[in-house]
Amino acid sequence: MPVQKDEIIECSIESLAFGGRGVAHVDGMAVFVEGGLPGDTVTARVVKAKKRFAEAVLESVVTPSSHRVKPKCPHFGQCGGCAVQDLDYPEQVTQKAAQVENALKRIGGVEGFSMDAPVPSPEVWNYRNKMEFVFEQRDDGLHLGLRSSLPAGEKGLAPVLDIEECHLCARRDMEILRAAREFAQASGLPAFDPSEKSGFWRHLVVRHTSLNEIMVHLITNEETRHYPRAEELGKALVDRFPDLTSFVHSSRARRSLAASGEKVVFRLGTREVEEMVEFDDRQARYHIGPNSFFQTNTKGAGELFGAVREFGGFTGTETVLDLYCGIGAIGIFLADKVQRVIGFEISEEAVGKAWSSAKLNGLENCDFAVGTLDTVANLKALPENDVLVIDPPRAGLHENTARAILELAPPKIIAVSCDPTTLARDVKRLSDKYELKRGRAVDMFPHTHHIETVVLLELK
């Protein structure tokens, strides 16, 4: 008889699924156990039972895994930021690499393929260079922190947890968070409520770079009468933290909960901060604005970009087409090894930063263009190239983009992905013309379920 909802089961956890849940089998059925770790024997309560699988939540650990460790953070289990802080780090990397390889075989249909050895993060703690904190108004007052974790089986928006510690980011980030929380609570202004589209405070984004530059980006609702309070917060933070390089206040009118501003209202200090990524003897510098996307693990980015350089096998004669180039991070890192880099990106702001970053590095062989990659006209205009680099959003390639790549048929494709399942789907889409030659998992996000992957595809 298959497992039933609310049934208590005993099972052995075999592996981790992408997302961080333990995988067990009971009477031949896969059971995903929230809180179960590979090597555990546990009792778990079934919260959802389907025909082919079930979901359960950990009740007790009967026999703990040899890989279980004591979590470092007192918020672990409440905060939604970390998923596997109680699993020793080498095993985290092993499990993530196995998830990538499994996805490529199961979804991508890849056979007879072995991944390179996975690359762990150079830093296991305090590695994040950017934190997105969120404001929330509840009956008991204003909160500022990170979303808490939702109980297994529940959906929706988790409440904000007023964290006091976080071992993923710099200590200075937490000091800035506490100061901003105290100011906002004392201001008497409420946090933004997306259901009512009212309230003022929305997000506080803190970014610091390897060059010791710090940017605080405050995002509020579009209520001009309250703008002076945001300006006061900026001045208070600059006074309290003299090492602050930039404070930016942006407004956002849309209901969506993205931590990005639509219009800059006020600024103290610089318009951007400068970052540097290193790998072996290569150094590249970047201008990063308040809304810029950049890899959140700077030293890990060196490993990731270094893998792209290695997989490319560049000789100095290649033209590289860098799709979804953002601020030009990967293309600029490759530019000293190739003849020409052409970047393509939908965000005009990001392309502006790509141009200024190329200039910062003294590069004259980089071109960047603004445009979307899901329209036929833009895709037909893509230039011929020797190596195509793609680093799409989590959702992967648009179907039109995949078709255009097959028509363009560059000799090599190097794909970077933060989602093994969409990467595997895209490898499958391109498999008529391309063969998967290499793959490497690069862990940029210790203690979370996220993993980056680089793969090399070559024209058959």
The total strand number stands at 22
**Overall shape:** globular
Fraction in beta strands: 25-35%
Strand count, sense and barrel status of the largest sheet are: 7 strands, mixed
Number of helices, counting only DSSP H or I runs of 4 residues or more: 9
Instruction: Kindly state the percentage of residues in helix.
Output: 10-25%
Query: Which runs of at least 5 residues are low in confidence (pLDDT < 50)?
Result: none
Overall pLDDT confidence:
95
What oligomeric state is this?
A: single chain
Question: Descriptors for this entry?
Answer:
single chain; 460 residues; alpha/beta; seven-stranded mixed beta sheet; 9 helices; 23% helix; 31% strand
Summarize the structure.
This protein is an alpha/beta fold. It has helices spanning 89-106, 171-187, 227-240, 298-312, 329-334, 348-360, 376-380, 399-408, 420-429; strands at 8-12, 15-16, 22-26, 29-34, 41-49, 53-63, 130-138, 141-147, 160-161, 201-208, 214-220, 246-251, 263-269, 273-279, 282-288, 319-323, 340-345, 366-370, 387-390, 412-417, 434-442, 452-459.
Please explain how this structure is put together.
With 460 residues, the chain is of the alpha/beta class. It contains nine helices and 22 strands. Strands 9-8-7-10-11-12-13 form a seven-stranded mixed sheet, with helices on one face. A hairpin with a 5-residue loop joins β2 and β3. α1 runs parallel beside α9. It is globular and about 65 Å long. The protein starts with 7 loop residues before the first strand and ends with a strand. The model has no long low-confidence stretch (mean pLDDT 95).
